[in-house]
Amino acid sequence: MTGTGPRIQDTIDTSRPHPARVYDWFLGGKDNYPVDEELGRRIAAIDAAAPKAARANRAFMHRTTRALAAEQGIRQFLDIGTGIPTEPNLHQVAQSVTPDARVVYVDNDPIVLAHAGALLRGTREGVTEYVQADARDPRSILEQAARVLDLGRPVALSLIALLHFIADEDGAHDLVDTLVGALAPGSCLVLSTMTADFEPENVHQGIAAYAAGGVTLVARSHAEVGTFFRGLELLEPGIVSVAQWRPEETADGPVSLYGGVALKP
Fold it and tell me: How many domains in the chain?
């Protein structure tokens, strides 16, 4: 399930850095351009922990997906702000636990659309689909996702490294409230977002570097991140640095991203 529109090669702007491609560079991927690498290197020079934070965030997605599939019995996943696919992808993790898992990815980035074919290869028993939509249009997302997911049954909603691109005044809370409000009891919200609580100077310099590249970022405090989970039941260990959410090995120090998982009662 993919959207239609201008040809991909006509819509990808390689003259300016793009956050998904910079993130791909941090992860050691190959789907980025010199302008993205340049910004990534500038940010890493300011904050040497930035690539580590990207890897820790990816590992957080893996652990939360496995936990929800194995422990909460979740069989449906809605991942918004998918980004460029880096294996293992969310559907591969979910379907390794439960092969019949149904996964819908959502993004409006032509780079991601160009790689949607890689996202769509899942298990024979499960379903993996891609929806082209803007994260700021949650009602359109829900309408399209409902063609694949049964919203009357629990869904894991993943907003991984998305909300720091959306300021509160631009509707970040409305976005979360609309999406969570449409989901059935037993659904879960998985969220990670940037914070300056641990390394304020480095993070604010990194935000300035992104801004110079035309990308706006928002850093939120622990209390501010907590507001996205109001009315939900946080799973242990609550809202922590993504590196410290149920680590499979001894956790390193915190990285500048908070993450949490919560159940809709």
Answer: 1
